[in-house]
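Lab meeting, action items carried over

1. Structure of the four-component assembly. Owner: GW. Status: complete.
Input record:
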Amino acid sequence: MILHTVNILSSLVLLSVLFAFGSSRIPALIKVIAFQGIVVSIVPFFIGHDMETGGMIFTVATLVIRGILIPLSIHIAIKKVAIQRDVFPVIGYHASIFCGLVLIVAATVISRQLNIPSLSDSRLLFPTAISLLVTGMFLLMARRNAIAMVIGYIMLENGIYLMGTTFSLRALHIVEFGILLDVLAGVMIMAVILQNIKQTFDDVDTTLLRTLKE
Amino acid sequence: MESILLWLAAVFLAPFFSAVILKIKAFFAGKKGPPLLINYYTLIKLFKKGSVYSKSTTVVFKMGPVISCATALTVLLFLPIAGHAPVFSFNGDVILILYLMGLGRFFTIAAAMDTASPFEGMGAAREAYFPIICEAAMFMILIFFYRMTGALSLSAYFAGTGSLALWQIAGAPLLFIVIAFFIILLTENSRVPVDDPATHLELTMIHEVMVLDHSGPDFALIELGSFCKLFFYAAITSQLMVPFDTGLPGLGLVLFLAGLLIVYMIVGVVESAIARYRMDKVPQFVLTSFALAFFATIITLELIT
Amino acid sequence: MSHFFAAISLILAGGLLSLVLARHHVFSRAVSAILISAGCVWGLVDAVAKLSGSVIHSASFPYLNLFFLAFEMDKLSVFFLVVIFLICLLAAVYSFHYMDDPNSSVKTAVTGFFFSLLVVSMALVVTADNMITFLLAWEIMSLSSFFLVIYNYHSAENRKAGFLYFVFSHVGAMCIFAGFGIMYGYTGSFGFANMALIPETAKIIVFIFCFIGFGSKAGVFPFHVWLPHAHPAAPSHISAVMSGVMIKIGIYGILRIYALLNFHTPVFGNLVLAAGVISGILGVVYALGQQDIKRLLAYSSIENIGIVLIGIGIGMIGVSAGNPLMAVLGFSGGLFHVLNHAVFKSLLFMGAGMVVHKTGTRSIDALGGLLKSMKITGTAFIIGSLAICGLPPFNGFASEFFIFMGGFKGIALDNVPFVMSSIAVISLAVIGGLALACFTRVIGIVFQGEPRSKAAENKKETGSSMLFSMGTLAVACVVIGIFPGIFFKMALSAVSALNLGYARIPLAPFEHIAGNISFAALLFLVVVLVVTGIRSVFYAKKPLSRSGTWGCGFTQPTVKMQYTGSSYAFDIIGFFRAAAPLEEDHPPVTGRFPAATHYKSRVYDIAERYMNMVAVRPVMYLFDKLRWIQHGDIHLYIGYILLAIILLLFFI
Amino acid sequence: MVEIVFLTPFITGLLAFVLPRTMGRQLLVVTGVVHLILSLLLWKNRPDAIFAGYFAVTPEGLLSLLVISLLFFLISIYTITYLKLNNLKAENVFTGFMLLFLSTMTMVTLSDHIMVLWIAIEATTLASAPLIYTHRSGASLEATWKYVLICSVGIAMALLGSLFLTLAMDLAKVDVPMSFSALTPVAELLDPVWLKAGFVFILVGYGTKMGLAPMHTWLPDAHSEAPSPASALLSGVLLNCAYLGIFKTNKIMVAAGLGDFSGTILMTFGLISILAAATFILKQNEYKRMLAYSSIENMGIIAFGTGIGGIGVYGAVICMIHHSLIKSSLFLSSGNILLGYGHRLITDTGNLAGRMPKTFVAFFAGFAAISGFPPFGIFIGELFIIVGAFKAGHYAAAGIFIASLCVIFAGFANQVMKICFNDAPGTTPFAEKAGLVWPQYILLLTSLILCFFIPDALYQTIVDAVNAIGGGLQ
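Predicted assembly:
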């Protein structure tokens, strides 16, 4: 239990979450999600999933997609449209960090409540998943910058994936792979939309996208 | 048979009694007044004359007098005179009578509107207005009678011992009814204080102004009709006032005639005593009769149950 | 029932053909008119035949795999079928010359189609024998009549009328849905059969829902708001059908539900009677205040629905008070009035249609003196007015007489029944008086006196088919009025279908009453003849000269000086000002040489006002307040998702 | 050979990108025909899937599949004329994505594995996003952005829910393939708490896609900005696909004896959606948005009916079928109106009856149908739902339901009558090509026929679907 790899990884992720709450720059956030992507995709190695070839291939694919392709696509999107790199917070940074702390504690408490098997030795994993999830939501709601919102979505997806790995033992890799592809395609489409938004409105501040109402 | 005779008698005597009113008024005015047969003279004179019709009028104008006279005569057919059974009678004839009078009114109004005269229109509007409340009051009285007798025909109320029986069942409320009915009499026959047949300003008339354009026999028919109508109401009132049913017919008839005379005299007295109300006061006046009838009915609820 | 279905399919065929042949104007009109009227004749004959027969005909077709479209023709249905087919027949005939505008041939064809659809759906409603069938026919009826109301959609007020009608009919239908839904909830089947088994509280709720639903179709105050808008908007023969027949379908619904629930509580009677009294009096008061002749007639329909409901209410009270004679008199009187009102109201609408068609105006105060140029129309209209005022010897009097008899039976009772029936009797009397005022006004202003505007000057009446329909109806008014016996028997047989629990109703007492009526009528006619005779004797070879009306000393009378409809009604409206607020607008005359001024007045319908204040505005306000939730900000949209989840997690 | 049904449009869709611009039009129709035939064959002889456990033929799936292919066929016919009349820049992108959209939706109807269903539904989002952005305007971009983001987030929740289902299986040591057909029989073994949690998340997730309030927010924007054929597809069938997901999950819930729980939630969401629709229809000044809100209303009705159970479910399914037919016809007609007047605002239209009579007939008939007038099917559906609600004893709910239907009708009727009968601002004549009206007519006619006669085979399919969640007519 002590100094278990998974817990180390998880705590790292939690740190990155806090960082995500606090950071004001898009590139930083991209790095964060890249890191998280890598971590969540290698977690299965350590929580005793049987690692036959299919599993190996799948994990590698996940690593590639979550850790490289997705962040890369966002990165390219930004490069293409040279956006001023601020996230336009709705909620200020310090407040955000505070939220983050509260959230992590809450997540830990909650996951204590729910007794879930197959978490015997990696206690931190579940809270991490939850906090990733909620952080994603937080970014989606508390950042006016469109890119930040997309990043939030990716974080959400990472969280869900992590949660999935924690307790679905009979992961049919083909299915998981399909999900992965969906997410990738989704992010790519979002990237395209981002570019169009930039071209049309010459900004990515979503306050411009409030014309359709009622 | 004798009821038919009585009916004829009623039709022929009606004008005479109306003349009584004139006499009374003249008496109060300290004048000699017209002879008691004045109405017959006018009728004969009118029947002799020809007629002038307005260019605006249609056949309705000619039908007006006929229908109004016919309704009055028909109504008299159902009226028990001096306690004798009427010519015709069936359960519900009261409703028929009231609606026949409505028919008469309809045609009088229609004839008036036919002349395109503003004054006659004005009269027609009033003629259409006041009787609405009268009818309400009439039906209230009817409800009262129905509670008493459980029948819906004049003969049940007034023929034979009917009216006496009424007094025996409910004396006090019947007084209200008499007054209420008298008010209706004044209104329906457009007497003072509702309308002044003797005035000379068309603006203030109701009935008289509506017949302005009628002349000759038509006018005679109208007059006859109104005499009969007045007689109808007066007869009922006298029945209520003098309900005694003596065995021998002669006496009964006399009493009845006496009552009749009294009613006409009271009308005359009222006409000489009171001035005509303002038109917008009239509804209240008529409503009082409704109220009286209403109270009478309420009281009877106590008496019977 | 094969005859019945053949008849309605013939009618439907007429409608469809008029659509198909829309291009050839006259031809399509002729075909549709002929087919529809042929179908109506067929249906009428069949219905009359069934009326005498005693066997109950029924038919049912499988529907959506495990339901049925069930139809049944008991006496009640047949009675209403007679009314429907009779009036629609004459309306179809009338329409041939009325819809003669060659420029709008397509619209005419569409009208023909929806007219036939309306007739068919009404016939189906009164024969429907389970909820699905009933609602199906009911909704089709509403829809088709909506298209007829919207016929002339180019005028804004007609659009408003259509909208009001659409909304009201839908809301009404929804109330009926609710009522039926509750019944289904207890019986678990769509059949009408075992509806009498549901608990009594449920029965009361069901009845109230259905009463609102059917009442809004029948134009019961305060659910009548659509009616005075919609009926004038439609073409006149449609108005005749809507006012004469369609609103009666609402009455049918109320009676049918009453019969099905088979629950004789005094509540129903008092409710129906109260509604009837209010609609009756207010309806005629508003009618008195109208400027538009067709609106006036529409309001008077509300009044007559009131009279019908008074009759039915008396009947229900009679049943609950255990007084069979009163009950039968009330119900049959009400049903008889349904027939009579159908006859004279459609007659009046057709007359009004002729007037509007020829003069091009519906404003009463613009007309006048039409009786001289439109003899037949005028006479028919006068007969209709006499009938609708309930005056002898016309049919209106006959039915009101029966209702009166029933009411007086109730006065012999005690407590609540006594009070209610006294109210009924008094209000019937008042309604009669008001109706007299109202229709003397119409006749006096529209048909008598001198033309008040160019529009009304010597307009000839043309269109044989229109005159034929009106003539027939006028004759019907007189015939029914003088010989009510046979026609009353129809109503009586319909009452037998209300399963009031009376073994079989003896005919004798009612035949006696009917006999009295015809006796009185004939007696009166004899007297009239006599008086006429006397009159003609006195006029024998006398000089009859014509001159101007006596102007009471005023030497230059003009048509403008005639009494107007508004001033005619002014005092009476004033008497009811609490219920019928009158709004006037006349700048005062000032100065020695006053400038031209004007006088406008209109009577407001309080139900309309309060509907706005109580129902419409609050709803609008509430929903306006809610509209901010869709403000276009995606962050909060995502927030909603989170919110939904969090809220739901509490319930796990 | 189930998979071929969605593989065919997938391939033709990819083909459309490479083919010349206008070839796509014919391709649409051809694919539509082929797809229709294939799905009819599928319906006739239910074959087994190659990847059994991932795909299967279920009655509810079949129903939506039939609706989809019929609609797509008719819409494709409409689309030809539509594309002729207004030339899009990237037409073959449009056609291509239409076909991909079709294939993904077909996949939804056929998928049996929980995760595969999720994949398919997410795929529909991705395939339809470009359709919404067809007009390349700022507004359409905004609509697309909201559509993609909100739906993705929502559907992510559904994924989470699906994971909870697996957790429920783990805790209960149930070891069966994660497919609805396999789970339903063993449902009562599953761990109830996580099952409920899974249902909640899946409901919210797919509910977002289905357009249940308060997650409906993307729907009016997307429907109003997309070109009319696309809106017709979105509203006509996409929503049904999302509903399918909820329906299947509800099946498990009912099998697990948690029917009351899921039913209550469904009813609540249904009522909220209806009320939300009422709120915005009442003063709506954009006809396509109005239609979109009416879709929300109908989805609410369907959810409500499903929640009631019993005859209500039958009504809900009937409503679903007819809503697809009618609403798509309405959207196509609205496309004509847009072509004829060139304005989205109701105040800029008017006198439709006079200027575009053919469209008027379709539009008004559609309106009457959607607001529950016979002789169109929604009438029957609503009737069943209402009586079902009373039968189940939900008096208050039924009251709210009826009241809000009345409000919606008032608002809807008001707007529609403005469009159809008000005096038109201009009088530019508009030639209504046959291709622009006949699809609507056929759709409405289908609904009309289905109101009076349902073929036994179809009826049997409906009953199978309904009985699965304790629905039925007795």
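2. GW to write a short summary for the group page. Key points so far: Chains B and D do not touch (no CB pair under 8 Å). Strands of chain B lie at 51-54.
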